[in-house]
Amino acid sequence: MRKIIVSESVTVDGIFDAETMGQWAAPYYSDERDEFVRGIVLASDALLLGRTTYDIQAWYWPNQKDDKYGIANHKNSMAKYVVTSTPMQAQWNNSTVIKKNIVEEIAKLKQQPGKDILIEGSATLVESLAQAGLINEYKLIVHPSIMGSGKRFFKDGMGLTKLKLVESKPISLGVVLLSYEPAK
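Above: the chain sequence. Below: its structure as tokens.
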């Protein structure tokens, strides 16, 4: 069975807002961080994204010509599934729209042969899939910044989810790489 892996960059206080990443994440980019992200992406053969994250990535990745780490070419060629309730035409190649029976459709994707299914961003989707017990692992890149306000990845009212630490690794510039699985 395939795993659903959530990969997210956050501040210490849980902010993941893409609009402010230049302030809280960019100053802490390093080769170690890039290699961690590269490993996650290359271990996956499908992207599962909410509509907002899909729109951002569909705009960004096809325009990346310098594929220094092999991420752009890999993301552009892999299968992509976008969960949305609003009408859309998925323009990014190899994209499929999931509009109905979302939990059931994603459970079917997990049963198909293949590598990991990667979710980036997409906090609302992650919340729904966590409640349905479909998330296998959370890979968090925690940046040593406190924003104080902004879009939080784990929202109030989400409910308790107990996690088991699988790996923790401090890297340069005070960034910490964390991997958790849902506790049984």
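The mean pLDDT is 93.
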